[in-house]
Amino acid sequence: FPPGPPRLPLVGFLPFMEQQLPHKQLWNLSSTYGPVVGLYLGTQPCVIVNGWEAVKEALLNDDLNGRPENVFFKIVFGGQRGIMFVEGDLWKEQRRFALHQFRNLGFAKRSHETVVHEETRALLQEIRKAEGSITLWEMLGVSNLIILWAVMGGTRLERSDDRLWDLVVRLNAVFRAGDISGGIVQSFPFVRHLLPKDHSFNIVKDGLHLVNDFIQEAIDEHRKELDPNDPRDFIDLYLIEMDKHKDSPDTTFIEQQLAASCNDIFTAGTETGSATVSFGVLLMALHPEVMAKVQKELDEVVGRSRLPSMDDRSKLPYTDATLSEVFRFRGAAPISVPHKAMKDTILQGSRVPAETIVLVNLYSVMMDPEYWNDPETFRPERFLNPDGTLRKDERLIPFGKGRRACLGESLARMTSFIVFTSLVHHFDFTLDPAVPVPNTEGKSGFTLGPPDFRVFAKARI
Ligand code: HEM
Predict the structure, then answer these.
(1) pLDDT value, residue 106
(2) Is 445 touching ligand 1 by the criterion CB < 6 Å?
(3) What per-residue confidence (pLDDT) applies to 108?
(4) Which of 51, 141, 162, 203 has the fewest beta carbons closer than 10 A?
(5) Ligand 1 in contact with 334 (CB < 6 A)?
(6) What is a biological process (GO) this protein takes part in (predicted)?
(7) Of all atoms in ligand 1, which is nearest to the CA of residue 327?
(8) Does residue 66 sit in helix, strand or coil?
(9) Is 411 close to ligand 1, i.e. is its CB under 6 Å away?
(10) For residue 94, what are the CA distances in angstroms to 71, 106, 205, 412?
(11) Which whole-number Å values give the CA distances from 294 to 87, 91, 93, 274, 288, in the listed order?
(12) pLDDT in tens, 240-272
């Protein structure tokens, strides 16, 4: 087992694990123990993987593509279900189906661009109407939910629907209360019965139940209205697939699986997307010289009478480089989603036994000073070639890499590109001094969220 810090009986490294910015703490361990660090989360063996060579090797090793059992899924869905927290054949079958159907539905293709444009227009209007300074994450979260729901549930949800705002607030609470290590309940599930209502475990569990109720209601409606010859969305396609397999007792196409997959997509896509664009706007307010260059490029290429589209992207190298820098600087999933060794394997020469949890530190790759020189400086130019074209870099991996890489990457890239560029094109952002931002490190949890901040949005178009 790889070398690592001493462990306490039963709890292992858990009491020492920092709740705020654990990606930094876990990366620091490598200066003592090397790129692959062994420790225990409770009684579960875990390796932390830091640095490009080790991270690349881990993400390309399919024996490390499992997922540790997730205690919340066990409680909310009665077992490991969905796409994100399953492994083996179930994972392959469900991931393949989701990707295939999303493509059939035009996932991340033109028709979705239309949906993203529609939602972006509504968002711009809402910001224009707002008085004084605004917090962006809720507004952005609602836009993301509506876009994701268009793919999954077909209908266009209205921004005025209170349930959406409630869901966004609860999902945010879930993502901030969560902890990548799984916390004490992951190792000792019985402890959950002793926890107070406002404990982070209960915040996550109740939030997931709320999302699940929303999705279950939609599945019931879809069942009633289903026309097998005219599927409208992901839920319809899944229900049709379930019917095809209804006589096979071993089928993985069952309703709990549909609900959990929708839950994965809904939860994975909302908070990460709004965090990325929120960080982007915060960084623009802190770097007005970058914002001005992006605006100039957008004015020249897009003009002032329409929204930026994906076809413009290749003509917007500085803007594209700026978004790449946002993804590098404050990637929304610094420690990715926990992986697990499916069988004994070797990583960087160290033995990783079957069932070991593997935490792959993407932050250690995207912020490595030996590679990026000045990683703590927000500098879009690092993604530009000397001739001004976009420089792609294989170490920019905010969505992971390999077979487990983010399922929603193309939709997430499209959404963040259109929403971010439209916001910067339409408004000059300045920070509201009433909410000081001491640093841009963000707030940890299951993912990394932006710090609290408010901006004034002055219309420029
Ligand atoms: C900026 C936004 C996003 C970021 C930074 C992000 C990042 C990630 C990362 C790092 C992983 C884990 C990869 C691994 O385990 O090695 C992941 C997995 C996943 N993401 Fe995303 N994601 C984003 C948006 C989305 C969206 C919009 C969706 C929904 C369409 C989505 C759905 C998923 C799913 C289902 C998985 C699990 C894939 C699997 O286990 O096979 N994500 N994402």
Answers:
(1) 57
(2) no
(3) 40
(4) 162
(5) no
(6) organic acid metabolic process
(7) 5
(8) strand
(9) yes
(10) 20, 18, 24, 20
(11) 42, 40, 42, 20, 10
(12) 999 999 999 999 999 999 999 999 998 889 999
Q: Is the CB of 399 under 6 A from ligand 1?
A: yes
Contacts with 211 (C-beta within 8 Å, 6 or more apart), sequence order: 167, 170, 171, 263, 266, 267
Protein residue whose Cα sits closest to atom 30 of ligand 1: 408
* Single-letter residue type at 331: G
DSSP SS3 for 49: strand
Q: How many CB atoms are located within 10 Å of the residue 166 CB?
A: 12
Mean pLDDT rounded to a whole number for the chain: 93
Please check if 46 is assigned to a binding site.
no
pLDDT digit string, tens, across residues 102-130: 777 654 444 788 889 999 999 999 999 99
Cβ of 404 less than 6 Å from ligand 1: yes
| Secondary structure class of 455 (helix, strand, coil) | strand
Q: How much is the pLDDT for 156?
A: 82
Residue 173: how many other CB atoms lie within 10 Å: 16
Q: How far is the CA of 194 from the centre of ligand 1 (A)?
A: 32
Tally Cβ neighbours within 10 Å of residue 362.
26
Does residue 280 line the site of ligand 1, with CB under 6 A?
no
Q: Which residue has the higher pLDDT, 28 or 304?
A: 28
- Helical (H) or strand (E) element with 279: helix 255-286
The three-point CA angle 269-273-279 to 5° equals 155
Polymer length in residues for the chain: 461
Sequence-distant (≥ 6) Cβ neighbours of residue 31 within 8 angstroms: none
Q: Is 284 in the pocket of ligand 1 (CB under 6 A)?
A: no
200 in Cβ contact with 218 (< 8 Å): no
Q: Which atom of ligand 1 is nearest to the CA of 402?
A: 16
Phi-psi region of 443 (alpha: psi -120 to 50; beta: other; left: phi over 0): beta
Phi (first) and psi of residue 237, to 5 degrees: -65, -35
Q: Identify the residue whose C-alpha is closest to ligand 1 atom 9.
A: 399
| C-alpha 293 to ligand 1 mean position (Å) | 30
Atom 3, ligand 1: which residue's CA is nearest? 272
Select from 264, 406, 410 the residue to mutate for testing ligand 1; criterion: most ligand atoms less than 8 Å from CB.
Answer: 406
Distance 406 CA to ligand 1 centre (A): 3
Is 85 buried (19+), middle (13-18) or exposed (0-12) by CB count in 10 A?
buried
| Ligand 1, atom nearest to 272 Cα | 2
Mind listing the pLDDT tens digit for each residue in 211-239?
999 999 999 999 999 999 988 889 999 99
